[in-house]
Amino acid sequence: xxxxxxxxxxxxxxxxxxxxxxxxxxxxxxxxxxxxxxxxxxxxxxxxxxxxxxxxxxxxxxxxxxxxxxxxxxxxxxxxxxxxxxxxxxxxxxxxxxxxxxxxxxxxxxxxxxxxxxxxxxxxxxxxxxxxxxxxxxxxxxxxxxxxxxxxxxxxxxxxxxxxxxxxxxxxxxxxxxxxxxxxxxxxxxxxxxxxxxxxxxxxxxxxxxxxxxxxxxxxxxxxxxxxxxxxxxxxxxxxxxxxxxxxxxxxxxxxxxxxxxxxxxxxxxxxxxxxxxxxxxxxxxxxxxxxxxxxxxxxxxxxxxxxxxxxxxxxxxxxxx
Length: 322
Fold this sequence. Notes:
By secondary structure, this protein is an alpha/beta fold. Helix content is about 35%, strand content about 15%. Strands 1, 2, 3, 4, 5, 8, 9, 10, 11 and 12 form a ten-stranded mixed β-sheet that branches. Strands 6-7 form a two-stranded antiparallel ribbon. A hairpin with a 7-residue loop joins strand 2 and strand 3 (about 55).
């Protein structure tokens, strides 16, 4: 049998050469590691649906971030669980809130680590929605002021970057204007630009205690069937001053990540969300998947699609395998 001159397997048979011609590589610098901060002291409680991830009190966060920094992971993303909740999420923008306390503590415990804070109200409201509620409607413009107050309080506590995840119209521009007016012109915004109303957030809602108490989030999060709409959302956030644009979730939206990468030269982030993380963990525990190769393959796929930054609950366990 005659073969063509070129044999594709020549570049695959030798392990060293196979690695030399590898097109997509993961590195610790690619990752942002999410943390869940809770009130109290000495609290380190594993989240049942997210093995290896914990509810941490501020003193435990200090220990955690030292380990994160030692691994070479450059940034953490903070989510807060407040002591009390109310209709307008006051603890989100309280100077003594858990995120504000944690931001200050992290800057002392691991000064080289970048502190990114999630800016949203869902963890702090008693109704579980991401904005002000009137009747059964989430009111966009009234929410913007509270988001701006939240972002400013995070920055004043030491946060290096804010990440609005609420999907209210105009929030990136409002936050940018607020930060600039207070002299924080150098603080970047990583916008959850294309955030879908996904089925893959279940474990996170347990972790953040943020399940809506009525209805759902489809009036403000995106329809999973829409890709062109995602590009509109990304363009709007860029026009309003976003420095980094994010697609969330990642694995079911690799096509969206790719299209966003093609349309902008801004850095693109992708959130490897809790459900994506939990599926691999659960399948591995059942013996259906080889866990670490599956995690690495998923993360490589996200990066190959065009993500510069990957937010993932797997960051700490992945780094030793890179």
